[in-house]
Specification:
One of its GO terms (cellular component) is membrane. 46% of the residues lie in helices and 18% in strands. It has 323 residues and is an alpha/beta fold. Helix 1 runs antiparallel to helix 7, helix 2 packs across helix 10 and helix 2 packs across helix 11. The longest helix is centred in the C-terminal third of the chain and has 20 residues.
């Protein structure tokens, strides 16, 4: 359990969890990689470091922590990042042509719409202040929950915030509700014991699968597909190691992030982990494209993106299966 300390520090430690040590910079081809400081996205980096998968592929990996997916894709647009790990709420960016999806990581069940104790249902959010990190899975589950209740974003007072600010604002009761995820919700629960969970990913599964994805800068895919395959081979090895050595993967990730072990373990156990063989099969049989097309439909319905690209134009299926 977290000890009582400054909320901003606690939230920052979990939302940013910026480790002081990056991946080992061995001699090899440079690869800059963004990741979110949580189990699904950081575990593959931690495993690759521990098992020296970067060295095996001749890569000099430089991993940088980000608070969310959209910021990673902004960095790609600026040319400072080659690869990243994003959640489903940021998939509209590849669907708009600003990056390529090069693989699926896992399926998540960590997102929630949470509310203060006096709010009983998602319908009660009408007119209320709701904090959300825009373009994230928290944003997505909020929109799905509202739609199920016959509401839309225009029916609430949407307050865009970064993840750590959501924790602080909810804990100080400056907002009535939030679209956010574990492990940040663990921090909130410690401060707001009567907090309620109104909506969860499981409410929409399997019709909607909240996938985490690996993405790459457009120019890297076009100009250096060999680098992309090397990166994907590292990720595939890490995915398989994570399944075969699940408990150790939690320990590696906890150490890498400097995060509380219990919280990392809780998030890890909320994921549906997929092997590289499963993901090859899901790519070849069109499952991944169907997942992505499902998000395209939601992006259009919610007014996020008017004309998304077809999945086959932004998912690099052949690169993934050939790696």
């Amino acid at each position: 359990m977290l000890t009582r300390r400054n909320l901003t520090t606690a939230a920052g430690a979990l939302a940013l969890a910026a480790p002081s040590l990056r991946t080992a910079r061995a001699a090899g081809k440079p690869a800059t990689i963004g990741y979110i400081a949580d189990y699904p996205n950081a575990s593959v980096i931690a495993i690759a470091n521990d098992q020296k998968y970067w060295d095996a592929e001749g890569l000099a990996a430089d991993a940088k922590v980000f608070t969310n997916g959209p910021i990673q894709i902004q960095a790609m647009g600026a040319g400072s990042l080659n690869f990243g790990t994003i959640g489903p709420g940021a998939l509209w960016l590849p669907a708009s042509g600003r990056a390529k999806v090069i693989g699926v990581n896992d399926i998540g069940f960590s997102d929630r719409v949470i509310a203060q104790g006096g709010i009983g249902s998602i319908a009660d959010l009408k007119g209320k202040k709701v904090g959300v990190p825009q373009g994230t899975s928290g944003d997505m589950i909020l929109r799905l929950g509202l739609a199920r209740a016959g509401l839309s974003i225009s029916d609430i007072q949407l307050v865009p915030m970064d993840p750590s600010t959501v924790v602080a604002a909810f804990s100080s009761r400056q907002i009535d509700a939030a679209g956010i995820w574990y492990p940040l919700i663990d921090v909130i629960k410690a401060r707001v014991p009567d907090m309620k969970e109104l909506v969860a990913n499981s409410d929409f599964y399997p019709e909607t699968s909240f996938i985490n994805a690996f993405v790459a800068r457009n120019e890297i895919v076009q100009q250096d597909p060999d680098l992309v395959r090397r990166f994907l081979r590292v990720m595939k090895k890490s995915l398989d190691y994570r399944i075969a050595n699940f408990e150790r993967s939690i320990k590696l990730t906890t150490s890498f992030l400097g995060a509380p072990p219990a919280i990392t373990a809780n998030v890890a156990r909320s994921r549906k982990l997929l092997s590289s063989a499963e993901l090859d099969r899901f790519t070849e049989d069109g499952t991944v494209n169907r997942w992505l097309e499902g998000f395209n439909t939601m992006f259009k319905t919610f007014g996020v993106l008017a004309d998304p690209l077809p999945a086959e134009r932004f998912y690099e299926a052949k690169l993934f299966t050939s790696a």
